[in-house]
């Protein structure tokens, strides 16, 4: 194990950008990936779990355990994002068929077990709806405080004012998909870093960036480039020409904090039904998150490309 090691758990809903995040983690010799937990989100749980296993197969890392988690949100009905990620979650991009089965332990119990076994040591990347984390906190109050840090991709904030959402006019997808879980996590007293749309829109997805990854030459890098091209095709049908590299920013923040700027803030989420459901708001009070506000786009892509170059 590398002398500078990052014990890590990845809670995700693959999803093209989750896929790039996971492959980035797998390509880093300094990341000790303890497990992948899956949730509903970009696609149903069965699809996101299959995708996680297929990505591990692609990377030659089927030794990393996969734990299936929440089938549905805490309160609301599930919502998916086929218009962005396809019905499968990974569009039409082919992946190898996985061999290793899902572990029998529920993802929520895995989070509790791992965090309690190594208090203050594990960084938890959360790149999907936060249902698994909220369930863990409800089952074992205070367990999320055992994480060294929880880096969340979700919400949208800038200077105290909401930016346009990507699911409703006010809400980002992960926050909207389970706002009640998001609320539980924000109130858990854990060490949280929040990466919202205001940050990820600074890290643009373009055809040129997809070509940059393809030029790395490995199968993993070419798969990631294909995922970005598929994503651009899909948002193009919605009238957008440029996308955002959402989830990989979580891995980049853990690995290279110098690529980012942040400030302490207090963030709440609106959980009442209606047009503002899932909206994140910055309020007065004791800070509960590190709100990430700035990013080095070129540096993040270089980090991702370097990691993908280490994979098959």
From TrEMBL:
Any GO MF annotation of the entry: purine nucleosidase activity
Limits of the Inosine/uridine-preferring nucleoside hydrolase domain: 10-300
Domain of life: Bacteria
A biological process from GO: purine nucleoside catabolic process
GO cellular-component term (any): cytosol
Name used for this protein in its record: Nucleoside hydrolase
Coiled coil segments of this chain: none
Xref: Gene3D superfamilies: Ribonucleoside hydrolase-like
């Amino acid at each position: 194990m590398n002398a500078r090691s990052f014990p890590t758990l990845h809670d995700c809903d693959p999803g093209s950008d989750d896929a790039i995040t996971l492959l980035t983690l797998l390509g880093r010799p300094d990341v000790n990936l303890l497990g992948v937990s899956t949730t509903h989100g970009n696609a149903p749980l069965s699809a996101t779990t299959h995708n996680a296993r297929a990505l591990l197969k692609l990377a030659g890392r089927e030794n990393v355990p996969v734990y299936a988690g929440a089938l549905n949100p805490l309160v609301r009905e599930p919502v998916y994002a086929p218009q962005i990620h396809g019905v499968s979650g990974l569009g039409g991009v082919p992946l190898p068929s996985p061999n290793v089965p899902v572990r029998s332990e529920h993802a929520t119990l895995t989070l509790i077990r791992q965090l309690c076994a190594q208090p203050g040591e594990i960084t938890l990347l959360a790149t999907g709806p936060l249902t698994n984390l909220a369930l863990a906190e409800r089952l074992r109050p205070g367990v999320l405080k055992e994480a060294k840090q929880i880096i969340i991709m979700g919400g949208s904030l800038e200077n105290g004012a909401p930016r346009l959402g990507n699911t409703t006019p006010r809400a980002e997808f992960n926050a909207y998909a389970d706002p009640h879980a998001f609320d539980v996590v924000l109130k858990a007293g854990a060490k949280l870093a929040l990466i919202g749309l205001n940050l990820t829109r600074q890290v643009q997805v373009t055809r040129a960036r997809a070509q940059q990854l393809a030029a790395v030459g490995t199968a993993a890098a070419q798969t990631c480039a294909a995922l970005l091209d598929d994503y651009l095709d899909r948002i193009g049908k919605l009238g957008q020409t440029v996308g955002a590299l959402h989830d990989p920013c979580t891995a980049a923040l853990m690995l290279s904090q110098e690529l980012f700027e942040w400030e302490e803030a207090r963030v709440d989420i609106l959980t009442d039904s209606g047009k503002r459901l899932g909206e994140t708001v910055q309020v007065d009070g004791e800070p509960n998150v590190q709100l990430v506000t700035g990013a080095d786009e070129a540096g993040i892509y270089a980090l991702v490309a370097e990691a993908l170059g280490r994979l098959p």
